[in-house]
Amino acid sequence: VQLQASGGGLVQSGGSLRLSCVVSGLSWEDYTIGWFRQAPGKEREDVSCIRNSDSGTYYAHFVKDRFTISADNAKNTVYLQMNSLEPEDTAVYYCAASDFGLKLCLYGSSLGLGKDYWGQGTQVTVSS
Length: 128
Fold this sequence. Notes:
- This protein has one helix and eleven strands, in the order βββββββββαββ.
- It is mostly beta strands.
- The chain starts with a strand and ends with a strand.
């Protein structure tokens, strides 16, 4: 199983970025794909998840309608469109796949009850 995250970069406050996570090696509809982030000196936190079986979504409270998660099932790719970026959004963003459903975002993993896979991160830096 491989997850390849891309799309990070440097953007000014108020700008936008679109992250992509290309997934291979798993049964697409059985998995939920999530985006997480970790800023320097802080714990990893969930950002958004999408359940591929029915496109159900979850967003962290701080997203505040600024981010949109979507999936292209034909390309096995999940996107995170991030608008109105703020310096507080600066972090390394990771994508993960789990068969634990949207609880992936609630708990950050399948808690050993399912299968989790993580990709490498992509750096997002928002300047003020």
